[in-house]
Amino acid sequence: MIKLILKLKDTQIEEFNLEKGMINIGRSKENDIVIDNIAISRKHAQIERQEGSGYVLRDLHSSNGTFLNGVQIDANDHELRDGDVIGLAKFEILVKGLAPATKPAPKGLPPEDIEGTMIFDAARRKPSPEPQAIPEQKVFHWPILSVIKGPFRGKEFKVTKDVTTVGKGPHDDIPVAGWFVSSPHAKISRHGDRFYISPLGGFFSSTKVNGVEIKGDHILKNKDEVEIGNCTFVFTQSFPDSRG
User: In a 3-state reduction of DSSP, which class is residue 111?
Assistant: First the structure.
């Protein structure tokens, strides 16, 4: 049986004890583990039990990606071990209850084959270690907010922190101006290689992405326009695989 503990930051939300051969995770209600959040795809990820009672994890081409111990995975099978952490947007799933893989015991020789067989000390004959492949390092690109409208027009602000504040206060990382602008007015948060913008302002303030006011966490995509007060920014982030 595999135990999956769903957490948000340091808070445990739910615990699942599952004996199924296929476990589906996503926003849609028909999933085995339902995470009702806009950053989670309807069919986000999948866990499957394979021969030998082991489990593998695969991404289902989700919008925001699936991470295993902080590394983004693809749609191929990725082996799960006890204590692994699965990342989905700002949620985490802790994997428990998996026994370590055991190697099958060597088969003994039948009595008729023992006679005439030379017995040697296997400890003296150690195979040379195989060279380990050096993992490919993924290049991370920090995004840029370019001002195309407002008093700071023409300026560029590079986002280089996991949490960046936007507002009219002296301590905000990116300045904005206008009536009803708060301090801070919004924040930009990094999750893996993705960035989310979240409104923090008061009742009369607004944060818009591509002309639409947002109310909660909203993923930023390449060339999105962010409007706060009388300032408009263009969010630009390049990827090594040329994703938008």
Answer: helix
DSSP 113: H
Strand-by-strand arrangement of the 174-175 sheet = 174-175, 163-167, 186-191, 194-199, 218-220
Q: Which helix (H) or strand (E) holds 112?
A: helix 111-114
Residue 25, beta-bridge partner list: 33, 45
Q: Residue 76 corresponds to which amino acid?
A: N
Task: Write out the two tokens for 143.
Answer: 């995004």
86: pLDDT strictly greater than 70: yes
Band of residue 2 on the pLDDT scale cut at 50, 70, 90: confident
Q: Are 88 and 31 in contact (CB under 8 A)?
A: no
Q: Is the distance from CB of 55 to CB of 98 less than 8 angstroms?
A: yes
Q: Please state, in angstroms and rounded to a whole number, the distance separating the CA atoms of residues 47 and 243.
A: 26
Lookup: tokens for 96: 């428990």
CA trace torsion 244, 68, 8, 189 (10° rounding): -30
pLDDT in tens, 135-180: 555 566 789 999 999 999 999 999 998 899 999 988 899 999 888 8
- 139 vs 190: CA distance, rounded Å: 15
pLDDT recorded at residue 239:
57
Whole-model pTM over 0.70: no
162 neighbors 140 (Cβ within 8 angstroms): no
Mean pLDDT of the chain: 83
* Separation between Cα atoms, residue 92 and residue 215, nearest integer Å: 23
> Which stretch of DSSP H or E encloses residue 59?
strand 54-59
Rounded Cα–Cα distance for residues 58 and 5 (Å)? 18
Query: Which structure tokens are listed for 33?
Result: 């583990």
